[in-house]
Amino acid sequence: MRTKALNSMADYCSKAEHCTDDVRKRLAKFDLTNEERNDIVEWLTKERFIDDCRYAKLYAREKARFNGWGPQKIRFQLIHKHISNDIINEALAELTPEVCSDRLCSMLANKARSIKDDDPWKRRNKLIRFGLSRGFDYDTVLKSLPEDIASED
């Protein structure tokens, strides 16, 4: 059973990038002792099938680029996957603030076009909430508001 689980996990990890937490959850399906699970994870780590640092960097890059997530949302999701703070900080350091803020500006502009409310205060608040829900901090959202909305005070 152990060999089957090891081969299955090696195959799983070779097809896409996964973190240790993903592998541990998948190993729970096999009838193994904790020691056997730990041995499998240790072997996969030693053989570089899983690398949490590599995973976190890729995850941060892809979520920022394709999903438009901000650093706070990415951090929260990586914490949820039991990635260490040092690794998370290293992964988030690779995200350039300029690219993130450019992406946020375009998302807020698109969102502003879709808001039907005529009240400028409500439009502004909806955009701020949208930016915060995407994982950006309040100051960054305020700086990235479209000019016509940002000046509506």
Q: Summed up, what is this model?
A:
The chain has ten helices and no strands.
Describe the fold and architecture.
The chain is mainly α and 153 residues long. Helices cover 73% and strands 0% of the residues. Helix 4 packs antiparallel against helix 5 and helix 7 crosses helix 8. It is elongated, with a radius of gyration of 21 Å. The relative contact order is 0.11.
- Determine the structural class based on helices, strands and strand pairing: mainly alpha
Order of helices and strands: HHHHHHHHHH
Low-confidence stretches: none
Helix content: over 70%
Largest sheet: none
Query: Taking all residues together, what is the mean pLDDT?
Result: 90
Overall body shape: elongated
Question: How far is the N terminus from the C terminus?
Answer: 66 Å
Distinctive features:
153 residues; mainly alpha; 10 helices; elongated
Secondary structure: elements and pairs:
Layout: H1 2-15, H2 20-27, H3 34-46, H4 52-66, H5 71-80, H6 85-93, H7 97-114, H8 120-133, H9 138-144, H10 147-150
